[in-house]
Specification:
This protein is an alpha+beta fold. 25% of the residues lie in helices and 24% in strands. The protein contains twelve helices and 20 strands. Strands 3-2-1-12-11-10-9-8 form an eight-stranded antiparallel beta sheet, sandwiched between helices. An eight-stranded antiparallel beta barrel has the order 13-14-15-16-17-18-19-20. A two-stranded antiparallel ribbon has the order 4-7. α5 (138-145) packs across α6. The longest helix is centred in the first third of the chain and has 18 residues, at 15-32. It is globular and about 60 Å long. The model is unreliable at 1-14 (pLDDT under 50).
Length: 449
């Protein structure tokens, strides 16, 4: 088996030694990245390792344990997608039917199907920030965002990551089941998986939970961060779970356990050919991203709440499931370094993050301008030497490196390191650049530079 935790004494690491080495690596990386606490769970089908380190909440000093639930952020979305696909599998929904047939608030975008919502191919803006969303109802939110005048592209022709699409998917679940989303995900998924339900906004804690943290870069001190997710955004980001809970879900996705019908698990791993999530993943299906590494195909999702970073990867071919949770923004870098070091200990080569596009640099002529996704504005400006930079909603401009295939990378202003960016699009009729996609979100050009 290509991926197996060593189990013989003449292997590079016997099980106890492997656990000790991985624990030491997790402890060390958590300290170096100033992450208060983290979890790692690895299931190869023959062995399962569950590790944890540090503190769940610096305000209380509560320790991180294997049971501690962490705000998952967008890793909630695969659970919501699984709910919708369960309903479709039962014949209650048509994946390729108009979502507006069930939700009249989507009547402004009648071409958007249920499948489009789940695979981020509906051309919907991402939606307003959580503070704005908290001041409105779900129906008004969706009616405002799902308007053909703000469409980023014709549904089913491209990709733009959209929280609003998953707010709509959650409403579909409620409309069809007659249950609030929280109750539906609890009854249909969490309890069958053996996961003790926990959500952002719970008034009474049902299990140990971790706080997200912001780290003061000058002092290195971590302070708990307030979760500000609006209640209506719950289907897009309200779940809390441990790394071991995520592994349980991952095992359902590769059909190791019978919580999901085989057709649902296979559908979630079916890549939509219209979805081209440059800089975010190698492909996307209804609820899961696709990642390629060394000839292997992995599926999964990443999630960030306020001060947390959570990640799930599954390799269906070899039956490997890997999950990580961390409770500060620096946990993303911790995950990247931890995943990179797994190969020498376990043989598991997991794609933690997308790599920069690379390629042959090219002039950025024709790219300058203002681009819009809902209420978010992206401004690309060209310096005197023609070098481009990108500013989002007036924030600090970041240098861009553009390539001949219209992909681009962001330049970290501190380290100078290239980070995955995205791509520009040309209008096929005119040849002019009319859209930009950054970190999976597409914005439509509204003004020249």
């Amino acid at each position: 088996m290509p991926y197996a935790v060593p189990t013989t004494t003449n292997a590079p690491c016997a099980p106890s030694s492997l656990r000790e080495e991985l624990q030491d690596r997790l402890d060390t990386l958590a300290r170096s990245h100033r992450v208060p606490g983290a979890q790692l769970a690895l299931d190869t089908g023959t062995d399962t390792l569950v590790l944890h380190t540090g503190t769940a909440d610096t305000a209380t000093g509560a320790p991180f344990t294997a049971e501690t639930a962490v705000p998952l952020g967008s890793l909630t979305k695969p659970y919501t997608a699984a709910l919708v696909l369960l309903l479709a599998d039962d014949g209650d929904l048509d994946l390729d039917g108009s979502a507006a047939a069930h939700l009249p608030e989507l009547r402004g975008t009648p071409q958007v199907t249920v499948r489009h919502l789940l695979s981020h191919t509906g051309g919907l803006p991402t939606g307003p920030d959580s503070d704005t969303a908290a001041a409105t109802s779900t129906a008004r939110y969706l009616a405002a965002v799902c308007d053909a005048r703000d469409a980023l592209f014709t549904p089913g022709t491209d990709f733009s990551y959209s929280n609003a699409g998953y707010v709509a998917a959650g409403r579909l679940v409620e409309e069809v089941t007659g249950m609030p989303w929280h109750e539906a995900v609890r009854a249909l998924l969490l309890e069958p998986l053996g996961t003790r339900p926990a959500f952002i906004g719970d008034q009474v804690a049902t299990r140990p939970t971790a706080a997200g943290h912001a780290v003061n870069t000058a002092t290195g001190l971590a302070r708990p961060a307030r979760q500000n997710l609006a209640p209506l955004e719950a289907p897009a980001g309200a779940l809390l779970a441990s790394a071991l809970d995520l592994v349980a879900f991952g095992n359902a996705l590769i059909k190791r356990v019978d919580v999901l019908p085989p057709a649902v698990a296979e559908e979630m791993r079916r890549v939509d050919h219209a979805a081209r999530p440059a800089g975010l993943a190698d492909g996307w299906g209804p609820g899961l991203a696709q990642y390629r590494q060394d000839g292997h195909v992995w599926f999964g999702h990443d999630g960030n709440a306020q001060g947390t970073s959570c990640h799930l990867r599954v390799d269906p071919e070899h039956g490997v499931v890997l999950a990580f949770t961390g409770n500060s923004g620096g946990a993303t870098a911790l995950w990247r370094d931890l995943a990179a070091g797994l190969a020498d200990l376990t043989g598991v080569r997991v794609p933690a993050v997308q790599q920069p596009s690379g390629g042959r640099p090219a002039p950025a002529s024709g790219c300058g301008g203002v681009y819009r996704n809902g209420t978010t504005h992206y401004r690309v400006t060209l310096g005197p030497d023609g070098s481009p930079s990108l500013s989002i909603d007036g924030d600090l401009a970041l240098p861009l490196v553009c390539y001949t295939d219209l992909t681009c990378d962001l330049v970290d202003p501190v380290t100078g390191r290239l980070e995955p960016g995205g791509r520009f699009h040309r209008d096929p009729a005119t040849g002019t650049i009319d859209r930009i996609q950054i970190s999976g979100r597409t914005a439509r050009r509204t003004a020249d530079g």
